[in-house]
Write a structure and sequence with these properties.
This protein is mainly α and 132 residues long. It has a single domain, classed as Tetratricopeptide repeat domain (Serine Threonine Protein Phosphatase 5, Tetratricopeptide repeat). Helix content is 70%, strand content 0%. The protein is built from eight helices and no strands. The longest helix is centred in the C-terminal third of the chain and has 14 residues, at 86-99. The relative contact order is 0.10.
């Protein structure tokens, strides 16, 4: 944690803390070490959010049991004109599962193909070479 905070402090000192790719990495890293507050703070201070930014925050909330926080973030993302990608939907559907919102999850699942054109598919976590 200390090393991450030092890297973040260095980014601020160098004046690059608002660089989107760097902040996306900070949000993800803070989330992975379990500090959702720092992840949220880094996200909120980001001036230009892209789909990776929004998805990182959605996944952070979803993975740490803050499922209800995902929906306002997703709504804000859409209002900002950013279109979700397949990974965004992984976070949203996971949040629905964690908080027991089955009907909301079903509606979002169907919107994946009807509204956004994503075809639901099973994805193996193992490389093809491992299964042959």
């Amino acid at each position: 944690m200390l090393e991450l905070m030092q890297a973040h402090a260095l980014a601020i000192h160098l004046g690059v803390e608002h660089e989107t790719p760097l902040t996306n990495a900070l949000v993800t890293m803070y989330s992975r070490i379990g500090d959702i507050n720092f992840a949220s703070l880094a996200f909120e201070h980001l001036k230009f959010k892209d789909v990776v930014s929004w998805t990182a925050m959605i996944l952070a909330y979803s993975n740490h049991g803050y499922g209800y926080h995902v929906f306002p973030v997703f709504a804000h993302m859409l209002r900002s004109g950013i279109k979700p990608d397949e990974i965004t939907f992984v976070g949203i559907l996971s949040a629905c599962s964690h908080v027991g919102l089955v009907e909301k999850g079903q509606k979002l699942f169907y919107s994946m193909s009807r509204v956004y054109g994503f075809k639901p598919r099973a994805v193996s976590i193992f490389p093809a070479s491992w299964t042959s």
